[in-house]
Amino acid sequence: MIAPPPNAARILTIEAAAGAFLAVATSFGAFFALKLGATDAEIALLSALPALLALCVTIPAGRLISRHARPARLLAVHQLAQRGLIVLIALTPLLPLIAQPHAVVALLILATLPAQVAGIAIGVTLADAIVETERARVVAWRSMAAAAVTAAGLFLAGRWLETQPFPGGYQKLYALAFAGSLVGVIALLRLAARQPLRAAPAEAPVRPAMRGSRIEQARAILRNHAEFARITVNTLAHALGLWLVAPLYVLYYAKALGATASWIGLNGTLASLTPIIGFLAWQRIVRVKGENRVLVWTISAVGLYPLLVGLTPNLTVILVWTALNGLLAPGLTVSHYPMLLKICPAEQRAFYLGIYSAVMGGFAFLLPLLGVRLSEIVGIRPVLIAGGLLCLLGSMSFRLRPLTMPDSMRSVFPSPRRP
Q1: What are phi and psi of 396, to 5 degrees?
Q2: Residue 381: Cβ within 10 Å count
Q3: 46 near 29, Cβ under 8 Å?
Q4: Which of 178, 221, 258, 280 is 20 to 30 A from 59 (CA-CA)?
Q5: Percent of residues in the chain assigned helix, strand, coil, to nearest 5
Q6: For position 409, what pLDDT does the model report?
Q7: Which of 189, 190, 221, 194 lies closest to 205, judged by CA?
Q8: How far apart are CA 369 and CA 45, in angstroms?
Q9: Given this model, what pLDDT does residue 318 score?
Q10: Is the Cβ–Cβ distance between 231 and 72 less than 8 Å?
Q11: Predicted local distance difference test score (pLDDT) of residue 416
């Protein structure tokens, strides 16, 4: 375990809060593309293609990060690249009308490429900088900080966009989000400067002579590391239904129910605000009950959201379901993610996280496309209901094939402390 830099938890929390400025802007990305004339198929690609990119880059990214002396610096570089692509969306209205929606969709998708690398690097950075027994607390505070900024930002942005001429309001939104998110990049560079140099892995993976050997090595890890294979397969079974319905929400809200930008902002605000309460509660519960029990309790709750949304085609009622989901889902975050980091061997954590992301990416690419296609045949509501039921069924895998890794955060601290 690398000695944590001073104030690492605080710096990582600031980074998460700053990154939420970008999340506010991208939350309106699909809605912006629709207003510019994007098709349903292009909205589906916003969910599908990032997963395909993940399938291609996450394992090589894991290798790169595992060999990097300062993962926090690598994380900052890729976050800066992501933010640079997102701010270009502000310039798309300058293009010919026919090209504008395609450009927005393309930039949103391309921005996920450095984000995929950053997603692995943040896990390694957090695991290196924060001791195991503190990780759930730091994950919770990072999530609460991001949720607070996102909640306020989505509410204000939704109201503000309706008072601004189109598309000028969206252009200003993306420019402001870029400026605010740079604070997180600066925070990461400060963390990297304080972080001790990371030694090369004691048992680094053998460099493959060709791409196929990399796949074989990943298969060998899944065969030989039973606990890693179990959390990967169980999570995959849980997520299939969620990926199926991922692109349908904005289509359902905007086209079927007539939601406005203000309602999209309000829904996003509730989706970000209620998790603050959820994280405050669940980080206490996980210290009493342990990660394994909380994971089993909350994994199925996530599948209730698409099911309830599909059963109640009413924008006001959907706000209630969004708030309920925001209270329950944090329990999954503070139990599943720390457990995944703990299961991955420390010396090869980045490579293992790359394999995990690649496995998820293949299915996350195909299922959103399938979901949109099915919605064109049977309608959006039946697909939402089916996706929720599929998630509930898949989540049972954590009960039928429970993880054997023991709890490490149970009763370690009597009460959570601020980072």
Answers
A1: -65, -15
A2: 17
A3: yes
A4: 178
A5: 80, 0, 20
A6: 63
A7: 221
A8: 7
A9: 95
A10: no
A11: 42
Q: Does the global pTM surpass 0.85?
A: no
Count CB-CB contacts under 10 A for residue 226: 9
CB 375 within 8 A of CB 385: no
- The pLDDT, as a whole number, for residue 199 is 54
- Cβ atoms of 147 and 279 closer than 8 Å: yes
**Cα–Cα distance between 42 and 96 in angstroms, integer?**
18
pLDDT of residue 322: 94
Q: How far apart are CA 231 and CA 339, in angstroms?
A: 9
- At 174, which amino acid appears? Y
Could you tell me if 131 and 333 are in contact, meaning their C-beta atoms sit under 8 angstroms apart? no
Residues 83 and 24 sit within 8 Å (Cβ to Cβ) = no
Distance between CA 294 and CA 1 in Å, rounded?
Answer: 26
User: Between vectors from CA 231 to CA 226 and to CA 237, what angle results, nearest 5°?
Assistant: 120
Location of structure tokens 């309830």: 308
374: tokens are: 């099915």
The tokens describing 416, both together, are 């959570």
pLDDT of the residue at 410:
60
The dihedral through the CA atoms of 269, 77, 198, 226 has a sign that is positive
CA 83 to CA 45: how far, in whole Å? 20
Alpha helices in 195-314 (DSSP H): 211-224, 226-245, 248-251, 261-289, 291-299, 304-311
Mean pLDDT by 10 residues, the chain (419 residues): 61 89 88 87 81 76 74 85 91 91 92 86 81 79 86 85 87 91 88 66 44 67 88 93 90 87 85 86 86 88 91 93 92 88 83 84 85 92 95 93 79 44
CA 208 to chain centroid: 30
